[in-house]
Amino acid sequence: MDDKLQMFENRLLKVYKHKSKLAKRQHIICYRVYDHDLPEFPFCIELYEDKVYLAEYLRKHGMTDEEHEAWLETCVATICKLLNVKDENVYIKQRKRKSNRHDQYEKTDSKQEFFTVSENGLKFLINLTDYLDTGLFLDHRITRKMLMDECAEKRVLNLFAYTGSFSVYAAATAKSVTTVDLSKTYLQWAEDNFAINLFKNASKYHFIHADVKQYLKSIPPNSFDLTIIDPPTFSNSKRMKDFLDIQRDHVELLNDVLAATSDGGVIYFSTNFTKFILDAENIKASVIKDITKATTPFDFEGKLKRWCYRLVK
Questions:
Q1: Which pLDDT value is given to residue 60?
Q2: Which residues are 270's β-sheet partners?
Q3: Which of 127, 170, 186, 229 is the most buried (most CB within 10 A)?
Q4: Helix, strand, coil content of the chain in percent (nearest 5)
Q5: How many other C-beta atoms are found inside a 10 Å radius of the C-beta of residue 90?
Q6: Average pLDDT, the chain
Q7: 8-state DSSP, 236
Q8: Which of left, alpha, beta for 198 (phi over 0: left; psi -120 to 50: alpha)?
Q9: Which segment of 51-60, 170-179, 230-239, 268-277 scores lowest on mean pLDDT?
Q10: How does DSSP classify residue 102?
Q11: What is the Cα gyration radius of the chain?
């Protein structure tokens, strides 16, 4: 084994030993093991129960296609050995680094192979082949639980909902849950996530296919008690009337949410724009608290590339 590969093996073994202990203690079975710890091995490695999601960030590596293929095979063998997973349970993605988490709207395959995983007693469908992301953002594990603990008997709104994982958590305790997304694919995925958790009350759970910016303008005041808003950094979907730029638009977005929120109501706002600056002065909330650190899971410490805030009307 060459020195660099030995270095990768040592590093992976060290982080896996540490994180697997923490995961076991917290009864967590889906977590991130490794994230570009060594520049020569630009991987993101996530465990979903007995399956591994392996994303290789594309970079100039100077290898021919054959050399790269052989190198990747060796890396996969090392990962399988250390994490004790079968080779056929490793799902490999190649991706460019992007600041926009909602680039997962790009489909990369069409195998339609879904697996069910669990988190805090709730079930979620994940897909490790067809999209750039899996369907469950592991970095919001704590935020989801925080939300569930706070939304009992409340009217909950989830905007830019993606596959509805926040909505599922809310449905466990909330009075009603409204899930909004511009993608019919992800909205259907969200409905499927509700179905496998046996949340089937159509009078309580609403799924709305809409442009969030337009939808917010149509909501009457005092419609919701708690809102989750986790928008893309930038979006110019053809289905939108206007493009979205989170730095430019966050004040208007949050003020529109506040207008639709009951007095004392709560908003969880998150963004993956690393250079984001919150314009707190122009946001009509009574309290704004940065909860980024409090919502950072053990497997993202020192590696988190998002902001998270809790606002009170």
A1: 82
A2: 308
A3: 170
A4: 35, 30, 35
A5: 19
A6: 92
A7: -
A8: left
A9: 230-239
A10: G
A11: 20
Distance (Å, rounded) from C-alpha 89 to C-alpha 94? 17
Residue 50, amino acid:
D
Query: Of 234, 190, 229, which Cα lies nearest the Cα of 209?
Result: 190
* Contact predicate 183/240, CB 8 Å: no
Long-range contacts of 287-290 (CB under 8 A, 24+ apart): 287/311, 287/312, 288/312
Q: What are 124's strand-pairing partners?
A: 117
DSSP per residue, 114-137: EEEEEETTEEEEEESSSBSS-S--
Q: What local confidence, expressed as pLDDT, does residue 96 receive? A: 60
Residue 47, phi then psi, degrees to nearest 5: -100, 130
The two three-digit tokens of residue 105, written as one number: 């709207």
Q: Can you give the pLDDT at residue 62?
A: 85
Nearest Cα to Cα of residue 151 among 270, 295, 267, 287: 267
DSSP per residue, 26-55: TT--EEEEEES-BTTB-EEEEEETTEEEEE
State the Cα–Cα distance between residues 78 and 6, nearest whole angstrom: 10
Q: Tell me 308's DSSP state.
A: E
Q: Which of 62-66, 206-210, 285-289 is the least confident region? A: 62-66
Neighbours of 298 (CB within 10 A): 17
Residue with tokens 């908003």: 267
Residues near 23 by beta carbon (within 8 Å), at least 6 away in sequence: 29, 31, 298, 299
DSSP string, 161-184: -TT-HHHHHHHTT-SEEEEEES-H
- In angstroms, the CA 185 to CA 30 distance is 23
Label residues 11-41 b or e (16+ Cβ within 10 Å = b).
Answer: ebeebbeebbeebeeeebebbbbbbebeeeb
Given a cut of 90, whether residue 161 has pLDDT beyond it is yes
Q: Are the C-beta atoms of 176 and 164 separated by less than 8 Å?
A: no
